[in-house]
Amino acid sequence: QLLSLHSDFFSNLFYGQFIERNQEVKEIKDISGAEFVSFLQSLHSRRFEFNSVRSALDTLAFADRFLMPRITKEVLPYLKRNSLSEDLLEYALTVVDGVPNNKEVLTWILTHYPSKSKVLEVVHDKLSDDSISKESALVCVKTSLKRLRELEDKEKPGYMDMMLRVASSPYHYAGLHLLYFDASRKRVVKEEFTFICIYRGYGGGMEKPTVNFWTIVPAEYTTVTINGVTYNRNEDVPVDGTGTVRNVVKAKAYLANA
């Protein structure tokens, strides 16, 4: 009864029109027994006191899975009052993805990424990760770009403002994560994240969308490699996919004498 009072999931499981209703033992898969027992004890005492951010995230995962919005409301303030360790970043993103109206707590998570490279990594990986929703992915983009604004180089005023406008655009843009290599082709000397417009051929003979990287890449870099394919300077570079902001292209640029 306690579970049914707090959870639509368990109310349907115990009293709904499902086969499981008549089973003496009801199995719940993919869950830690010890963590669930601890969750039940807190539920029974009607007090959720967390001894760590990890335990709060575990409780949030249970509350989301078992449709317990009241418990969710108790967890979120605790999380936002505390710091998030780097080893919990990926887990936190996955857990929070299912929480309704999660923009504020997603922002809290992303502000804990410690460096520019980590921000770039979450943008690059999460936009194409089917484990999170489109809505959460968009929040990741916008929040990550705001984080990049804090880290932007002084010689590029307004650069991040442009990127934020593009992130909200319904038109055809691709994210570009560009790595510049030294003459040895082994060491990255610079990395850049930006958005570029994709040129589409309407009756012009283009079979695939293309991007002109060379308006961005300095003249001393004469080749770019994407997915193992090398393109020479001024060649059109095919881009697979829809060409929306959800796509992130990772490119490697090499010097002329490399």
UniProtKB/TrEMBL annotation:
Record-annotated membrane-spanning stretches: none
InterPro entries in the cross-refs: BTB/POZ_dom, SKP1/BTB/POZ_sf
Residue ranges of every copy of the BTB domain listed in the record: 1-52
Pfam family, one: BTB
Superkingdom as given in the UniProt entry: Eukaryota
PROSITE patterns: BTB
PANTHER family given in the database record: BTB DOMAIN-CONTAINING PROTEIN-RELATED (PTHR22744:SF14), HELIX LOOP HELIX PROTEIN 21-RELATED (PTHR22744)
Name the record gives this protein: BTB domain-containing protein
Species the sequence originates in: Pristionchus fissidentatus
